[in-house]
Amino acid sequence: MLHLLSALKILHYACIDFRDHLNFMLHLSLTLEILQQLYLELDPSSSLLEAASSSHSSELLKV
Fold first, then answer.
1. How many H helices and E strands in the chain?
2. How much of the chain exceeds pLDDT 70, in percent?
């Protein structure tokens, strides 16, 4: 969660610095790097999408 908040904060700064192309690209690069670290830390076997889809499909079966 900390990585996601950091990425959003840096992306916010990127939008502020949009007028300065180099700063924008630097902030965007840092944001993507943090999001990549977050993705790598997630366990693929407990993917949020898989959990959401299986939960949703089990609710449909109950109806």
1. 3, 0
2. 51
Are 7 and 31 spatial neighbours (Cβ–Cβ below 8 Å)?
A: yes
**d(Cα 9, Cα 21) in Å, to the nearest integer?**
18
Tally of domains within the chain: 1
Question: DSSP for 9-54?
Answer: HHHHHHHHGGGSHHHHHHHHHHHHHHHHHHHHHS-GGG-HHHHHHH
Structure-token pair, residue 44:
């693929």
> What would the two tokens of residue 28 be?
């965007």
| Residue span of the structural domain in which 55 resides | 2-62
Whether the full predicted model's pTM is greater than 0.85, yes or no, is no
